[in-house]
Amino acid sequence: MIGTISGDRSLSERDEDAADTAAPRLEVEAISKSFRSVDALSDVSIAIETGEVVGLVGENGAGKSTLLKLLTGIHRPDSGRIVLNGSPVQIDGPRDAAHRGIAIVKQEQDVVPNLTGYENLYLDQIPDFTRFGIVNTDRMRSRAEQVIEELGIELDLAAPVSSYSFTERQMLEVSKAFSESIDTDHPIILLDEPTAGLDEDGRELLFNRIDELRDRASFVFVSHELDEVLEVSDRIYVLKDGSLVDEFDAATADESMLQRAMVGRETADEYYRTSRQPSIPSTADVALRADGLTVAGDVDDVSFSVRDGEIFGIVGVEGCGKNTLGRALCGVDPPDGGTVHVHGDPVDPTSLGRMVETGMGYVPKDRKAEGLLLYQPLTMNVSLPSIGTDRTSHSLGGVGSLLSLIDGGKEREMAAESVEQLDIKTPRLDSLVYQLSGGNQQKVVLAKWLQRQSDVLVMDNVTRGIDVAAKEEVYRVCRELAEDGVSMVFIGDELPEVIGMSNRIGVMKKGRLVDVVDAPVGDKPTEEELIEMMI
Amino acid sequence: MADGTLLDRAGARLTKIRAERTPQDWVIDLGPFVLLFLLVIAFSIASPNFLTVSNLVDNVLRNSTILLLVSLAGTFPILQQSIDLSIESMVGITGVIAAMLISDYQLGVLALLVAVIAGTVFGALNGIVFAKLKIPSFLVTLGSLSILSGSALLLTGGTSVPYRDPSVRWVSTGELIFSIPNIVIWGLLFYLLMTFIAFKTPFGRYCYALGENEEVADLSGVRVDRYKIGAFVVSGLLCGVAGALLAARTSSASPGMGTGLLLQSIAAIVMGGTALTGGVGGPHRTLLGVLVIGVLANGMNLVGIQSFVQEIVLGFVVIIAVAMSMDRRKIDIVK
């Protein structure tokens, strides 16, 4: 009941003496788990006290997700045990976990958009609210209202979830996690990348909630955003290759310390390989020029040009139109006005198919949904834009017609060349790409366009959702491409990345390109300077 | 560039993880072979007439050819994760067109070609409405199923159209090579052609890409509408061939002569390994499904199972095949 949570508030005042004597709320003791002889976790031990926020960081594949799945009973440990309040338990699945007070807020939102907020909150418990098989919506709704009021969250629960903003949905998920584990004292809420996709206000709101709720709950906070982990957590565990490699006190740690522990080496200094950034002479040929590009409601009269081998960054707050600009440049979302020139020739940005002929390529924001045929072989993914055309690295057969035939041998060669050029780690040339790690998947997306001999790439958040080491790899690839004369429009949400990589940076605000800042080696703009222009 | 060395160098970089195959992969890959083998064994034991050249060639293969053609037709839309439900009436109307042109206008063999062209046009119309007006293919072809069968009934007044033309009949029942009926040769030719198209042409490749993820294909610069229409053009063309050959074989055509082919072809396609979720399988596999259905029907006839029961069996076969072939993308991704 809700009462039990708030009723115990005094017990959970973060009293150092009490924490020393009582058993921790949750302990993971020497837990190991392997999948098909690959160690996902080996001998990991962590402890969480009541009222504590514990950060969990690590690269992709470090074992964070596996640990969360063990805690919610989706997987069973091979060895080691999970101890709650001093007594060992076996967790039999997410429902059992919830009964024991462990609930998870997942990365992907598990909401049913056409149902109301309160229906979503109690989706799996609707039978509990019935009488003779008829649902008592009033009771369900008032229970739900009570829960979110307790939590201090404001939501219109009677409205369908489809009308919620992304942040509101995330808050609904948090409420759901609480309501599931509500019958226990001091629930443990696992937050799996809860800020992915949230805007600044949403993050603020979420962090405030966590702060206020910590006297009655414990949190495990998993995120790639190290600054957030530092801000929210009390202590931070670092996982690397399935093992616990370090533990930090958030008050004394900083980002580079975490990063070093995660990657196992120094990265911050030469992260973006700025030493390899060339200065682009003003006499270099213009690869891409946009004049007065306009997309109704999103992009307003944007003009700029990018020279051969130049990386042109584009930054701006959420909703400034930078993503739409990227799509309009390539004809994915055809612009309503303005012109685009590629290599000096006017092109017709009404379809990507036509733009590709001119040497343009588009790396979309959502790799899995927009960039890759996940369940098809790597070979097929790499050759996808190239088949049936003559502008490719390996002519795959006849030219430009429906009847041109595919040469399987050349196709494998094409894939082999990409594997070597971009150092793609894959079991086989024809492995299905869903088996690759995020970073290697992103390299496959790049390979598609490189084999198509695209020399003007529009990249929307090219390192989104990949780990530190893989990001570094992608930066290296971008540098090499630039050295080969490939021009890039580098749209990014992460300012340090855009600053580190770009020759020049365009700042967008409310659909307009308000400024273009030079970013030469040794004289890069600071984040603060850019933010000032963005807002 | 030295080809071998490039592939070798890449080979040396490949990490040493073995791609795991799930039990379901094995079921999908080998299931139809095993099933066909078991059926052949079982019917050979149950009926002495089953395993004879005359039964296998004259009955199983000849009777399966029409099903093979319409199943190949249906494979391409399903590969793209669409579906063509109009194939039954497509066969009916193209057959009727051929028969009427022969009996009323003495067009002879040329009429068969007209029927194929008509099927192609109907397929193109299906595809254009589907791709350009963005109406689900399920609904477009459900509509044209009704439109075409109504039209065929209207053309014929609901009766069958007989004709006498030995040369037309020869196209289907003649024996150009050894003593194999020509209709079987036609089936084989189109089977090889469709398999070639699926693997060697951009169109075939894009069918797989579209079925897997249309958005990705679109963002790779593939002109998706063109290939979506293409799948229905191929489907219409093959149904036209099936209609023409069926009319030639029986020296008559009736509006309802395609009845029953839709369910059988979906069973064959799915059992062959082309999942309704798109992107996997292909026409080469469809042949297996067709043979399973063909052997099943022939064997049940020989052992004297009545046709009503056969229908019940077919229904079960479809459901089981779909259940077993739902694709593997739901499995847990292991890191």
Low-pLDDT segments, ≥5 res of chain B: 328-335
CATH fold name of the largest domain in chain A: Rossmann fold
Let me know the CATH homologous superfamily of the largest domain in chain A: P-loop containing nucleotide triphosphate hydrolases
Largest sheet strand order of chain B? 1-2
| Helical content class of chain B | over 70%
Mean pLDDT of chain A: 82
Q: Regarding quaternary structure, how should these chains be classified?
A: heterodimer
Which structural class do you get from the secondary structure elements of chain B? mainly alpha
Radius of gyration of chain A: 26 Å
Walk me through this protein's architecture:
The complex is a heterodimer of chains A (535) and B (335). With 535 residues, chain A is an alpha/beta fold. Chain A has 3 domains: 262 residues, 3-Layer(aba) Sandwich (Rossmann fold), CATH 3.40.50; 155 residues, P-loop containing nucleotide triphosphate hydrolases (Rossmann fold), CATH 3.40.50; 86 residues, no CATH class. Chain A contains 19 helices and 22 strands. In chain A, strands 6-9-10-3-11-12 form a 6-stranded mixed beta sheet, with helices on both faces. A 6-stranded mixed beta sheet of chain A has the order 18-19-20-15-21-22, sandwiched between helices. In chain A, strand 21 and strand 22 form a beta hairpin. In chain A, helix 7 packs parallel to helix 8, helix 15 crosses helix 16 and helix 16 runs parallel beside helix 17. Chain A is globular, with a radius of gyration of 26 Å. The N terminus of chain A is likely disordered. Chain B is mostly helical and 335 residues long. Chain B has a domain of 219 residues. In chain B, 74% of the residues lie in helices and 1% in strands. Chain B has 14 helices and 2 strands, in the order ααααααβαααααβααα. In chain B, helix 12 runs parallel beside helix 14. Chain B is globular, with a radius of gyration of 21 Å. In chain B, 50% of the residues are buried. The C terminus of chain B is likely disordered. At the A-B interface, helix 12, helix 13 and helix 15 of A face helix 1, helix 9 and helix 10 of B.
